[in-house]
Amino acid sequence: AEPGPGPGSPLGRMGGESSPGGGRRVFSPAAEFREFSRRQLRDMERLFRQYDAGKDGFIDLMELKLMMEKLGAPQTHLGLKNMIKEVDEDLDSKLSFREFLLIFRKAAAGELQEDSGLHALARLSEIDVSTEGVKGAKNFFEAKAQAINEASRFEEEIKAEQEEKKKQAEELKQRKAAFKELQSTFKQ
């Protein structure tokens, strides 16, 4: 059991995000972004926090500019604005952690254009967004269940064989006893 994210982190913060309807709602990355493992979410959070220079829980245009330069894919001012616009659901012209996660969701779903800044961000961030983790875990547990079933079937076969051997040994014993009895009657 690994410790969860701290209260100051975007993953651990219980304060909701502003929604377009104006109300606040609690955002739980693990609940909403189920296609990603906890490890993937932590990696994305680490990346988000690394570039949230203002530590305000958002990546603004200048922070995104710096991020893209550090990742080796500098963007024009217009390019950066378009990147934000593509996932900026609340239209505040900056990326919340939830909107940041949308980049990786779109990347995993193949919804980002090859030449887009967001595609470059997702690809260069070295966060593996393949959802094989979830499928892999499912396959692992299915294989484990199958192995357990096979093992128990194997054990049942062994028990059946042992029962059969006991039965044969008992029959042999009875036959020997019967033969000795028969032999003793002939000797008299």
Concise overview:
The protein has 188 residues and is mostly helical. The protein has 7 helices and 4 strands; from the N terminus they run ββααβααβααα. The N and C termini lie far apart (80 Å).
Topology:
Blueprint lengths: L16 E2 L5 E2 L3 H4 L5 H14 L6 E2 L1 H10 L6 H11 L7 E2 H12 L8 H8 L7 H56 L1
Antiparallel strand pairs: 1-2, 3-4
CATH superfamily of the largest domain: EF-hand
Helix coverage percent: 55-70%
What is the name of the CATH class of the largest domain? Mainly Alpha
Distance between the termini: 80 Å
Low-confidence stretches: 12-22
Strand content: under 5%
Structural class: mainly alpha
> What name does CATH use for the topology of the largest domain?
Recoverin, domain 1
SSE pattern: EEHHEHHEHHH
Order of strands, widest sheet: 1-2
Number of domains: 2
Q: How many strands appear in the DSSP assignment? A: 4
The mean pLDDT is 81
Gyration radius, in Å: 32 Å
Largest sheet: 2 strands, antiparallel
CATH architecture of the largest domain: Orthogonal Bundle
Number of helices: 7
**Basic shape:** rod-shaped
GO molecular function: calcium ion binding
InterPro entries: AIF-1_EF_pair (IPR049025), EF-hand-dom_pair (IPR011992), EF_hand_dom (IPR002048), EFHD1/2 (IPR040365)
Protein name: EFHD2 protein
Pfam families: AIF-1 (PF21008)
